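User: Some background: our group keeps a shared notebook of sequences we're curious about, and every so often someone picks one and asks for a predicted structure to add to the entry. Today it's my turn. The entry only has the sequence so far, pasted here. Could you supply the structure so I can complete it?
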Amino acid sequence: MGLDRTLFDQPAVEVAPFLLGAVLRHAGVAVRLTEVEAYLGGGVDPGSHAFRGQTARNASMYGPSGHLYAYFTYGMHVCANVVCSPAGQASGLLLRAGEVIEGLELARARRTTARSDRDLARGPARLTVALGIGLDDDGADLFAAPFGLTLPGHPLPYLTGPRTGVGGDGGGELFPWRFWMPGEASVSPYKRHPHSR
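Assistant: Of course. Here's the predicted structure to add to the notebook entry:
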């Protein structure tokens, strides 16, 4: 028996292992998630967009769990998170990487610069492009059309470590909140931020 959306009413660090191996569908493509990163709000996690409270940009993180928080980064990319914790308590799981398991030709057409199929959704911005996710999907329910999210029945084997590219107090070994499936070619390479602690 699979898990349902009530799982996401917990903090992101507790939900993360259950999201690995889940299948996210959107716009004709399905991706099996192989890597996520947890972020908490409420002054707990300096690496989180919700560290200093609610803003117009991060409002979806404070909404109902099981929804999408999509945001623009580096002036060019859209990244996506699954909202966790009850409404009013911000936490989320950044969708870092996955393997395209359906709609391969469509994903290839969207990701024309990919060197191989393993790179189609290898990295958070690549994953959103492969799935056709844009800023207008911010706040969408991942358990309702046009999205679909199928969770595995139990946690699969996983590893943890520092989050990729997070600087300052939120980076480094104090926050080993990157979760990934070992041996998966689609997992993105770890990149330490030069200013992580």
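Suggested note for the entry: The radius of gyration is 15 Å. The CA atoms of residues 57 and 167 lie 20 Å apart.
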